[in-house]
């Protein structure tokens, strides 16, 4: 019988029913699954010089027992054993918990080796592993697997060893030879052995390098295959607008477009004019003029005889957008309508009727736009703002509203390139990387909370000049879990401090939507001078007269979020200020405050944010759509990601990829992931 990788793991020695059950729970059913279950870390027992070891690092050292061990009991089972160990010229303390029996093995002057966490400050090691005698360098890198219940790491090592010797030769390399040799990658079989049982640090590194590339390539192939499929669909709308007519409108705007805006507009218009469906991400920093570009695209759709939709995440934003579009198009005879959940009853029915009849040209709204009752006569262009707040499903639903409308997703959260090509890898990307000329830089300061008096005096001075201020708190109300400022307290504190002088508004997510609207309207009309708020004002809110942004406990927020908040000011002609109040305890917290006060470029900040927080946290927990990679790390392996993306794009464009047996394994991964139907397999 030929042994195949698809054999059940239970064919291996030592895997009985119970063990198999646990392995299944770990997602391991076949031998292939087992070989694909990589160690999540390695124990490195290579002896190190303590001088080079960092605080908290795990290390193995060899030394002579230098003091009688002292054993202390706490209760029946818990104990602590300490002794002095002379390692080279270091005299350190070794501490072992709950292993009283080790005392017998510790003889003054004997050589022992210990492995554990190095506490540089106390010059001590928290012993995890202990051996008598001199340390053997053999097998000094050991794989550690994530295990559970009755399966131990040692068992996993045995199973994997067995599987490697029986099966590794039968594993087929999914990568084509030409790529393996072009990048001098380790062969699949070699890499499988080296990732599980590395003989040297270098072979582990090479194995990892190979799997990182493979993982990225397979992922990017999916993205590129989807993109190609989309591009080839000719069922999209070919908008027949005349460019001259569009530019008539562009020239009527009170400003010339920036170079970046013009370039992006070109990209969008050529997508719209072509028969395939636009699926484009438009990135641009706050205030870079995305909305202006969106308006022009909506106008082009209108000229082509189609309706347009603009979907945004909040009602306030929907109103603001509807307002500004209304003003822009006033002279051009377009009908703009606003649909949110507060449009009810008869008004709603009428609006929906007019929409269906084609009397409304542009519909602006929140999630309400994607409800089933909303029917367009002929929807040609859909634009969403701050799109990462919408989930993948919502994006799809929106697209199904017309007959294959063109779709443009806008975001003002600059997304680091590595994330953009991963999370939105199937889309085309346009970037506005330039702000309109003459914008004043927002001055940003980082201060401690005990500077409050001076900040309030400064706010007061600006307010007397006629300006307005935002004050942001991380929480709505007091919490016994978190020691950070809350909006309710700050609101009453300021109401007291500025009594009879300024009017203070309060804004947070727990207000009903009409309350929110009232507060926002009052602030926009300058009836309220100071708006105390949580981060609900983060997205898109536009009050050009507001010039001060004060953020409490600023180290609580990510860089991208701080940047969004800061973008609420600096929207008018006056010099604006952002004051970050923070007493960060951690180094990263301090680092973040420093970066914020020095950098105003959103893309630069987003890259730093990604470095500091890691990809998982970048978008926050909800709806991030972040793929999980087994070996690869989007931040550290970004070069491999770029390479894989380019290779994937080239591959899907080549005929060989779709026909040559050399690419069979790669094509199979596309079929397995549902990107391709089985029919394309040849
Ligand atoms: P975004 O949507 O990217 O935040 P907006 O389109 O809302 O940016 O533009 C921000 C402000 O800049 C608006 O007041 C808009 O009228 C103005 N604006 C847009 N494009 C330009 C330009 N090319 N030159 C000058 N001002 C511009
Ligand atoms: Mg905008």
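Sequence proposed for the structure above (682 residues):
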């Amino acid at each position: 019988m030929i042994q195949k990788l698809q054999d059940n793991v239970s064919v291996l020695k030592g895997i009985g029913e119970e063990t198999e059950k646990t392995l299944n729970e770990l997602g391991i059913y076949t031998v292939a699954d087992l070989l694909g279950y990589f160690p999540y870390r390695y124990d490195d027992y290579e002896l190190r010089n303590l001088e080079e070891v960092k605080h908290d690092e795990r290390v193995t050292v060899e030394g002579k027992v230098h003091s009688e061990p002292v054993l202390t009991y706490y209760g029946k089972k818990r104990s602590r054993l300490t002794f002095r160990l002379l390692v080279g010229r270091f005299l350190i303390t070794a501490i072992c918990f709950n292993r009283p029996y080790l005392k017998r093995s510790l003889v003054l002057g004997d050589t022992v080796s210990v492995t554990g966490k190095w506490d540089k400050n106390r010059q001590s090691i928290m012993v995890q592993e202990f051996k008598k005698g001199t340390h053997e360098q053999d097998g000094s890198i050991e794989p550690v697997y994530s295990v559970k219940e009755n399966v131990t790491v040692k068992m996993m090592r045995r199973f994997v060893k067995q599987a490697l010797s029986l099966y590794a030769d039968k594993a087929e390399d999914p990568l084509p030879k030409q790529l393996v040799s072009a990048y001098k990658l380790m062969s699949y079989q070699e890499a499988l052995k080296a990732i599980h049982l590395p003989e040297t640090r270098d072979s582990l590194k090479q194995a990892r390098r190979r799997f990182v590339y493979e993982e990225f390539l397979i992922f990017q192939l999916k993205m590129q295959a989807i993109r190609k499929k989309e591009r080839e669909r000719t069922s999209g709308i070919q908008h027949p607008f005349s460019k001259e007519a569009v530019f008539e409108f562009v020239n009527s705007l009170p400003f010339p477009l920036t170079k970046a805006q013009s370039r992006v507009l070109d990209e969008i218009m050529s997508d719209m004019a072509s028969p395939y469906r636009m699926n484009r991400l438009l990135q641009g920093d706050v205030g870079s003029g995305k909305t202006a570009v969106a308006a022009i695209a909506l106008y082009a759709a209108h000229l082509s005889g189609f309706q347009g939709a603009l979907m945004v995440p909040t009602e306030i934003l929907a109103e603001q957008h509807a307002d500004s579009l209304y003003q822009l198009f006033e002279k051009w005879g377009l009908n703009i309508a606003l649909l949110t959940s507060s449009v009810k009853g008869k008004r709603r029915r009428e609006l929906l009727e007019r929409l269906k009849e084609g009397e409304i040209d542009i519909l602006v709204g929140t999630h309400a736009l994607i409800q089933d009752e909303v029917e367009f006569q002929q929807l040609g262009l859909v634009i969403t703002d701050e799109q990462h707040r919408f989930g993948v499903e919502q994006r799809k639903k929106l697209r199904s509203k017309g007959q294959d409308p063109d779709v443009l997703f806008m975001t003002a959260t600059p997304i680091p390139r590595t994330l953009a090509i991963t999370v939105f890898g199937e889309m085309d990307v346009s970037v506005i990387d330039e702000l309109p000329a003459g914008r004043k830089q927002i001055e940003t300061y980082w201060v401690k909370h005990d500077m409050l008096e001076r900040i309030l005096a400064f706010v007061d001075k600006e307010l007397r000049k006629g300006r307005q201020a935002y004050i942001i708190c991380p929480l709505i109300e007091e919490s016994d879990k978190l020691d950070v400022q809350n909006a309710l307290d700050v609101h009453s504190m300021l109401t007291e401090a500025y009594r009879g002088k300024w009017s203070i508004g309060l804004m947070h997510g727990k207000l009903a939507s009409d309350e929110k609207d009232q507060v926002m309207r009052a602030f926009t009309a300058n009836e309220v001078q100071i708006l105390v708020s949580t981060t609900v004002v983060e997205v898109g809110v536009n009050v050009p007269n507001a010039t001060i942004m004060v953020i409490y406990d600023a180290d609580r927020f990510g860089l991208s979020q701080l940047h969004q908040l800061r973008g609420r000011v600096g929207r008018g002609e006056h010099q604006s200020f952002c004051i970050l109040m923070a007493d960060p305890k951690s180094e990263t917290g301090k680092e973040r405050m420093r970066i914020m006060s020095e950098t105003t470029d959103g893309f630069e900040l987003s890259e730093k944010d990604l470095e500091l927080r890691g990809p998982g946290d970048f978008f926050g927990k909800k709806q991030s759509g972040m793929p999980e990679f087994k070996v690869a790390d989007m931040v550290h392996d970004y070069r491999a990601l770029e390479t894989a993306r380019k290779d994937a794009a080239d591959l899907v464009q080549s005929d060989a990829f779709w026909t040559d047996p050399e690419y069979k394994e790669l094509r199979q991964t596309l079929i397995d992931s549902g990107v391709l139907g089985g029919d394309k397999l040849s």
